[in-house]
Amino acid sequence: MGFIGEDLFHFQATIAQSGTTFEDFVRENYVGKWVDEPLYNVLNVRTTFVTAVNNFLVNEGLLNLERVQMSPVTDPLAHDVEHVPTIHYKGMPYVATHSMIYMKFLACFNPRLKGIFIDSPNIRLEIESPQRKQRGKYLIDFSQIDIEMRRNRGVDFETYKNEPEKVKRILREDYEKAIDFFERMIVAAASAVCEKNDEDLKALGVALEVPKRPFPRVRHDEALKKHGKADLDAKAGDEIDAQFFWVTGLMRENYDLIYPYILQDGSRLPLSSYTSDMIYNYDICAKSIVRKTNTYTRAIEILSGAIREWLYEPIICRLIDNRIIPEPPVFENGMLMNIANLDGYGPFLTAVHMTDDKGKPLFPETMGAGIGVERSLYALLKGGKIEKIDDVTFFGKNPDTYPIFLF
User: How many helices and strands (H and E) does the chain possess?
Assistant: First the structure.
């Protein structure tokens, strides 16, 4: 605690030099927000939104999973973060959860499950904006409703390599099932908010429409060619007359399915050869409607998901090609011989490698997504009383806002 006190001492001295007291800072940046009306309205909307999503998932037959906040392994992420927080306990280092993606996979081992969901903890120490601008969408400590469902298709590695048209047909069918599922989830949440929170929306200066299905879709490779990488979601959304839309087929995480990744002869295509129809993932982007002008704000991504890699061989190739592990696991008589070289991935890859008594892999075929709670609230409520993502939280830790966080 001494180090915390010293840091706070220096922080207080710094703001005093600018003519601000510590009490003034706490009042302006925390207490003032807590007692103000907009955050009360936001909390009403949040409660309805989260309850509606949870009710939808329960009614669809998914089961609730416990939170895992530290583990020997976490989501490596495709984007840079400052570092991964590490906690030492009983002589073992554990990392804080970036997302529960690997835990979702392992929970789906049980063949009786349709799927699972979690109010997942997420700690991602996002890098501060290099331009020191308010990006508005990042929190380093946030809530995500994580969802994963079994596909139960029974496609083995031989079929994967030798029957590509059959596999593509199956994957496309499951892809459309996932799209349908998450569209219905968004419709359920939006319907509940429209029904229960109209006064809160009016007070915040925004409107919400129950979206019509199907949502518009944007292929990532086409949008990239047209708009470039910077602010792609926002630029694509500027051309769409809808509050929600999809961006599909973007090269991202190691576990989001690319098919085919391993060809029949064991080779792999260069990264530049992959098109959006070979990448089986999807994002939902959303905008708010400003009541005063009846115009949309710019879109941001609120949900991301995919059909997942499910076979041992592609999983290992993707991890190596993405430089997450340095070499393939080596198993001998139930022992992982190079466990020391695989960092925290040894236990996970042991489970991926396991088979039942008939030699059939136990690792499940799944598809899923995570929807950011604060990100969704910000996307749908900004433009009136809400200016940045901190405004929809009591204790939001936005890397672009404060030099240190007091709560």
Answer: 13, 16
> Mean pLDDT, the chain, as a whole number?
95
User: Beta strands 217-219 and 244-248: pairing type?
Assistant: parallel
Residues pairing with 367 in the sheet:
149, 307
* Cis amide prior to 214 (ω within 30 degrees): yes
The domain that holds 50 is classified in CATH as: 3.30.930.10
Tell me: the pLDDT tens digits for 138-167? 999 999 999 999 999 999 999 999 999 999
Is 325 a domain residue?
no
CA 151 to chain centre: 20
pLDDT value at residue 20? 93
Average pLDDT over residues 68-75: 93
Number of domains in the chain: 1
- Please determine, for residue 383, whether its predicted confidence score (pLDDT) is greater than 90: yes
Give the residue from 387, 196, 189, 224 showing the smallest Cα distance to 302.
Answer: 189
Q: What are the residue ranges of helices labelled H in 108-254? A: 157-162, 164-196, 198-204, 220-227, 232-238
Distance, in Å, from the CA atom of 126 to the CA atom of 140, rounded to the nearest integer, reads 6
Yes or no: say if 351 and 363 are a contact pair by the CB < 8 Å rule.
Answer: yes
